[in-house]
């Protein structure tokens, strides 16, 4: 067996079939592989169990699973879409590469959710169907995250030039929209999707109602959080 496919990935959870809840593939049946660890520590993060060891025990929240085992798990379902998320999955892209390649060759559509701070390797770009790139605004990332930590110009331009990226921003305040406009213009980010921050249906719907007009005005796209509307902030959904 190829040594690469037996390399372990640090996995927080894998689950499905469920529905992709966000962005341009929202509503599609999907499997999720959530990798552990992140290079940011955003206060508004909805998956702190992938990185916040002040609140969670890393020994309980992560385990090593080989790319081969994850491949076999995904292939045990007919679900076409496999979403690899985190945390920040591209922290592990050396070990991730054989999984992405094997699933793509087997006919699966691969989407990677990323914060956009780490440029993908050419081999990852080749086999991934879509990058859902979510740069963090100053509001979302918090005061401890300077622009240089949360915005990597070279990486964002790399994603934009790949022709395989959509750019999905999480918004909680009107101030976020002006920052997003600046990033989109500076780095050539398109298409832009705007998603309300929130982990309850009430908050998500409330923020979508005022975001709608702003998104239309800027010729962007509006995303809900379908999984929150259906199941609340429930893990594994």
TrEMBL record:
Keywords: 4Fe-4S, Iron, Iron-sulfur, Lyase, Magnesium, Metal-binding, Queuosine biosynthesis, S-adenosyl-L-methionine. PROSITE patterns: RADICAL_SAM (PS51918). Its EC number is 4.3.99.3. It comes from the Bacteria. Binds 1 S-adenosyl-L-methionine per subunit. Mg(2+) binds at residue 47. It catalyses: 6-carboxy-5,6,7,8-tetrahydropterin + H(+) = 7-carboxy-7-carbaguanine + NH4(+). S-adenosyl-L-methionine binds at residues 87, 134-136. Substrate binds at residues 19-21, 34, 85. Its cofactor is Mg(2+); S-adenosyl-L-methionine; [4Fe-4S] cluster. InterPro entries: 7-CO-7-deazaguanine_synth-like, Aldolase_TIM, rSAM, rSAM_sf. Pathway: Purine metabolism; 7-cyano-7-deazaguanine biosynthesis. [4Fe-4S] cluster binds at residues 38, 42, 45. Residues 25-233 form the Radical SAM core domain. It is an enzyme of class 4 (lyase). Catalyzes the complex heterocyclic radical-mediated conversion of 6-carboxy-5,6,7,8-tetrahydropterin (CPH4) to 7-carboxy-7-deazaguanine (CDG), a step common to the biosynthetic pathways of all 7-deazapurine-containing compounds. Belongs to the radical SAM superfamily. 7-carboxy-7-deazaguanine synthase family. Homodimer. This is 7-carboxy-7-deazaguanine synthase. It comes from Saccharopolyspora endophytica. The gene is queE.
